[in-house]
Amino acid sequence: MTELSRLIPAEWRVIYNNPLQTAGDVREFRMEGDAAVSFPMGRMRLESTRDAAEGQAANLVFWCPEQFPANLAVTWDFWPVREPGLAIVFFCAIGKEGQDLFDPRLANRSGIYDQYHHGDIDAFHISYFRRRYPEERQFHTCNLRKSYGFHLVAQGADPIPDALDAVGPYRMLLMKQGTSVLFAVNDLVLFSWQDDGTTWGPLLGGGKLGFRQMAPLIAEYGKLQVYAP
Questions:
Q1: pLDDT under 50 in the chain at which residues?
Q2: How far is Cα 134 from Cα 185, in angstroms, rounded to an integer?
Q3: pLDDT in tens, 130-159
Q4: DSSP strands (E only) in 49-150
Q5: Which of 27, 38, 158, 161 has its CA 20 to 30 A from that of 137?
Q6: One-character DSSP codes across 4-50
Q7: Cis peptide before 169 (omega within 30 of 0)
Q8: CB 195 within 8 Å of CB 146
Q9: How high is the pLDDT of residue 136?
Q10: CATH class of the domain whose range is 3-228
Q11: Which residues, 6 or more positions from 98, have their beta carbon under 8 angstroms from its beta carbon?
């Protein structure tokens, strides 16, 4: 049992387990944006194949194909490899009218940020390794935002070292239970927030999970697990 396991209700069970070790493990994942997926260390490496000078056009989102329930806990291993850049996890992502995230009636998405917070989807997202811009590299935070919209609803300190000093893996945990959202790295809870279902829009239910990176970040991921009641 890991230290993080104590934060997940004892009665919850693993409903999805993906080691993220080989191309076969992500065969059904969906990439939005131009990016390379490789496994040089036996774990999933993501990096943009476009020049970071192209701005938002160089960024990516890599979606897990599964539809997950409203109450869930997600854990994964994270390694920052090269900076600058920014890493985000999306969850509870769904069309604004309840469509599946991959419904062809939804507008095309290509990694450009506005498409995810002011497009035709609703989602939570946590930016947890923010090193893209100078001000982010001076003061490290993890931010929880709720969309539709660009609502910053919770914030906590980022304990992950810069890539040059990182040893990893850093075990990440996000948990959504009822109206609460919790985020932790290793055994440290960074924030816990309650959604009133009004101030920032209606409560979000089940949906998709995805990893986003801002170029030129290179990062690696492993041991993706999802728990649910």
A1: 1-3
A2: 23
A3: 988 777 777 899 999 999 999 999 999 999
A4: 60-63, 72-82, 86-95, 121-130, 141-147
A5: 38
A6: GGGGS-TT-EEEEEE---SGGGGTT-EEESSEEEE-TTSSEEEEESS
A7: yes
A8: yes
A9: 72
A10: mainly beta
A11: none
In sequence order, the 6+-apart residues with CB closer than 8 A to the CB of 16 are 64, 66, 68, 224, 225, 226
Strands of the sheet containing 60-63, edge to edge, are 30-32, 60-63, 208-214, 86-95, 121-130, 141-147, 151-157
User: Do 213 and 32 touch, CB atoms closer than 8 A?
Assistant: no
Q: Of 227, 217, 221, which is closest to residue 35 (Cα–Cα)? A: 217
Helix (H) / strand (E) element for 155: namely strand 151-157
The amino acid present at 217, given as its one-letter code, is L
Predicted pLDDT of residue 203: 97
Extract the tokens encoding 164.
């040059």
Tokens representing residue 212 in the block: 């986003």
- Residue recorded with tokens 């192209």: 54
Q: What's this model's pTM, rounded to 2 decimal places?
A: 0.95
pLDDT of residue 131: 87
